[in-house]
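Possible regression after last week's pipeline update?

I re-ran a chain I had predicted before the update to compare outputs. Posting the input and the new output here so someone can diff against the archived version. Not blocking, just want to make sure nothing changed silently.
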Amino acid sequence: MTARVDVPRPVLEWAQKRSRRAPEAMRKRFRDWDRWLVGDARPTVNQAQDLAAFTHVPFGMLMLPEPPEEHLPIPDFRSGPEGHGEPSQELLQTVYLAQNRQAWFEDYLVRIGADPVEFVGSAMGMSAEEAAALISDALGYGPEDRSALRDASRARKYLVQTFESLGGLVSVSSMVGNDTHRPLDRDEFRGFALHSDLAPYVFVNAKDTKPGQVFSLLHEFAHVWRGETGVSDAEAMIAEDRSPIEKWCDQVAAEIAVPRRDLAARADMGSDLTEELERLASVYKCSTLVVLIQMRTARLLQREGFNALYEHEVSRLMGFIAQRSATKGGDFYSNQPLRISERLSQALISDTRRGDTALPEAMRLMGLGSVKVFDKYVDRLEGR
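New output (post-update):
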């Protein structure tokens, strides 16, 4: 007799919802899916194992009488009193991986006698404008400083490398680890910051445009300079129900990206607005939305009718995001220093060579599936 498994309907529905698989995808994968839901049939052990793998749910959880409640292990600064509800497994696992990486790196820094990072928490209690000046100066990221940067992609690279040179870690990725079948949702979160006096960690969701990622980096840096841990908002900057902390971090990031005094001197408000937004976004290496927000803040645009202008610009940019999502992701090994953090990668490689970190552990933290891939990544990283 074939062994079968009792999986309660609430657990089946939870697994499907948690995985963000559409009902049609469940029916396509499991022909008896609807019968399982109503109790007319039960999955075999093999089918239950396949269900666990397909929905990325630990097999043992399918045996529970009720779905477990899952919560983010760090503060949730997303919009509304309950954020976006239950976090996706992709967000949860991305946070868990980041926490594991940070914990390893903190232990590593303690072993080598590294000093605490001085800037962590140094902006607490400051106004957004004061904090923006402090962070911009530390990063060397004033408007003139970035004039040599060709575009937002170069600006992103500069910010990542500068933050890591100051003592932090940065990961920018569009997926869980290196799993291309598990993309992150841009609408769920923009990024997060993990506090640490030794190894502040910033993660940015790369599902956004390059200018959007630049803003997210600056936003997460603001969290670090406040000395806070938390998942950041993906909602519009003009939304009224957002966390005060998120509003402050957005104000800091916007002022770093587009300083109001500099904007007032550069902006030609007599030109076509869309063309001027594009020109200034190119100058500041940021999103046109940030320029638009700062135009309002600097009173170059009236508040009346501003929301309509903002929504129109959002719609225009969404077309670019859709086009970008259809393009290929580039060379695997070239992307790894950004996905993993180059500073973390170098430390793991060095520690593994000394025999202080086991190779399987280093591969797990890097998300590399084989020794061959690990060796090739090391060769590519050291040959850059």
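Follow-up from reviewer: compared with the archived run. The mean pLDDT is 91. Marking as no regression found.
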